Amino acid sequence: PIPGDPPHYEIYGMPVVKYEGLYLGFPWAFIADGLEPLDTQLAVSRDGIKWERDPRAPMFIPRGPAGTLDDSYAITANPIVVGDEIIFYYMACGFPHGYAFTNERKFEGVISRARLRLDGFASLSCHADSGGYVTTRPVRFLGRALEVNCDCPRGWLRVELQTEDGTPIPGYTEADCDAVSADKVRHRVTWRGKDDVSSLAVQPIRVRITVGDGEVYSFGFVE
After folding, report:
1. What CA–CA distance (Å, rounded) separates 76 from 26?
2. What pLDDT shows up at residue 102?
3. 85: buried, middle or exposed (CB in 10 Å: 19+, 13-18, 0-12)?
4. E strands, the chain, where?
5. How are beta strands 109-117 and 85-93 bridged, if at all?
6. Which of 137-157 are b and which e, b meaning 16 or more Cβ less than 10 Å from the residue's Cβ?
């Protein structure tokens, strides 16, 4: 437990999966308050030892409304990646944790499925038309093109490639970038119609992503 957790909070269990160089955990949030609900939260670690979790964030897999089959439990096992989705199979139950002792409700439970877009655990969001931006640390890449995973069908997204010291690279500036207005897991970025970035491979560059009225989940370099 960490500051900000509700009273009587416990972590009942936590499946862990290695995902894109990170460790993702799915803590089962157990509140020992008499009703004893179990929800699934999200935690992250770079080394599998020190974990970060935001108690203010909504539950990753929340329980359903009162009277539904998942109004008491919603706890997941490790997810699986299927195409462009991440699938979670989780136990959904409509009886209190102390059911075996109180016998107040007959057994009600099902195995349920939750779906998430690829890399959809978190996003960088800007819902202002004027846009907001993020610039990476210097990175080195292999590949010939850049793809973004974004959700901005009513907004826009542009990418600028910079030198290590933050100078825009001619031909790959924000002004050169063709605006992206799409909801796609893999959208290839182009600059004045061209997508080839192989001339910049291996050398350290920065990636600046600007988005207006939309969300960006991830990016990657591909062949």
Report:
1. 7
2. 57
3. middle
4. 9-11, 16-19, 22-25, 28-31, 38-40, 43-45, 73-76, 80-82, 85-93, 109-117, 124-126, 132-135, 145-151, 156-163, 183-188, 205-212, 214-222
5. antiparallel
6. eeeebeeebbbbbbbbeebbb
| 188-219 pLDDT, tens digit each | 999 999 999 999 999 999 999 999 999 999 99
CA–CA dist 55, 3 (Å, integer)? 8
pLDDT number for residue 36: 85
Which helix (H) or strand (E) segment holds residue 6: the answer is: none
What pLDDT, on the 0 to 100 scale, is given for residue 95? 79
Residue where the block lists tokens 């080195």 = 140
Evaluate the CA torsion angle 8, 68, 64, 12 in order and state its sign.
Answer: positive
59 neighbors 38 (Cβ within 8 angstroms) = no
Whole-angstrom Cα Rg for the chain: 22
Q: Which tokens go with 18?
A: 């290695």
CA–CA distance, 174 with 194 (Å, rounded to integer): 14
* Alpha carbons within 13 A on the beta-carbon side of 213: 9
Q: What is the pLDDT of residues 89-137, one digit of tens each?
A: 999 988 777 765 555 556 678 899 999 999 999 999 999 888 999 999 9
